Amino acid sequence: MPDPSKNSQDGFPDNSVITGASSGIGRAIAIEMARRGAKRLLIHYCSNQTGAEQTAAAVKNLGAEALLCQADLSTSDDRKHLVETAFSELFTIDAWVNNAGVDVLTGDAASFGFEEKLQRLVAVDLLGTISLSRLVVDHWLSQADCKAMSSMIFIGWDQATRGMEGEAGEMFGPVKAAVMAYAKNLAQSVAPKIRVNTVAPGWIRTAWGSEVGGYWDRRAKQQSLMGRWGTPEDVAKAVVFLSSRESSFVTGQVIEVNGGWNRRYEREDGG
């Protein structure tokens, strides 16, 4: 158990919620928060309980308390359950990270048709995220001692507004662009008590990125000025910065974590 008398490092949040934290970027965010001195973290997951438990174990090894909560964010009842659990267990929540999203690129979902994939993305990544965020904001603003500078972070996508060819671009682009637009509008509604920002990753080696080679490996590296794939840890560091009081004058922004967009990149035909 962390020492409650000890403040987290450099104004980083003591109590946070990370949705979709059973693997990948969500897990990296939870671990980075614990490493920076977080006291309590709520680890949300949908179906990957084993992964969530592994995240919790990593967090505990760094001295933070980890709580688990299962919820399907496509359903209203589960969204309410997650928010009620979070506020009853943590009471004061300094940061809420909307990281959860449907994986339609790997596993069984990879074989689904375009329309079914899109419907799942809209249900969870867009509608579920927006509805969940409104519930969280209502709880924050209803608390008599609502802390100024509570922070909410969304996960977008750097190519959502640039445009990318193919089914992936046609699915993720509209959904993530809408999420990013919602975050900017929410920031206008809830300032100055709550800060709202978006982190927009580029090519990140999560489950899909770890499986590809050839064309996609070259493309990911060549489209970044840094000449490499990004890592979940790269994204996590940006999220944790936006969660902290170090970024107290930052709201309504989209921070791209993509190694810098390489404008000289020439797309290969027939990828």
Overview of this protein structure:
By secondary structure, the protein is an alpha/beta fold. The protein has a single domain, classed as NAD(P)-binding Rossmann-like Domain (Rossmann fold, 3-Layer(aba) Sandwich), CATH 3.40.50.720. 44% of the residues lie in helices and 14% in strands. Strands 3-2-1-4-5-6-7 form a 7-stranded parallel β-sheet, sandwiched between helices. It is globular, with a radius of gyration of 18 Å. The model is unreliable at 1-7 (pLDDT under 50).
Short description:
By secondary structure, the chain is an alpha/beta fold. Helices cover 44% and strands 14% of the residues. It starts with 14 loop residues before the first strand and ends in a 14-residue tail after the last strand.
